[in-house]
Amino acid sequence: MRQEISVLALIKGKERFVFVYDEDSREKLIDSIRNQAADPDVSLTWFDAAVLTERARLQAQTPSTIREVGVRD
Q1: Average pLDDT of the residues in 8-32
Q2: Which domain of life is it from (predicted)?
C-alpha cells in the first residue's frame, strides 16, 4: 500500500515554513508546530500554529485531488 505524503506551508514575509508529513506522523507534526510557536526564537505565532494544525486536520478529511496545500500570511 502506498503512503500518501502531505505538504503544509506557511509563507510569512520572507520566511517559509514547510512541513512534509504522512498520516502516521500527523500528531508529531502538530506537536512540532506547537513547540515552534512556544519557542521565542522562532517567529511562528500561536495564531499561525492554530491555523496550521487546523489545516493538517482538515487535510486528513479532504480528498487529495482538491487539497489546498499552502497558507499565505
Answers
A1: 94
A2: Bacteria
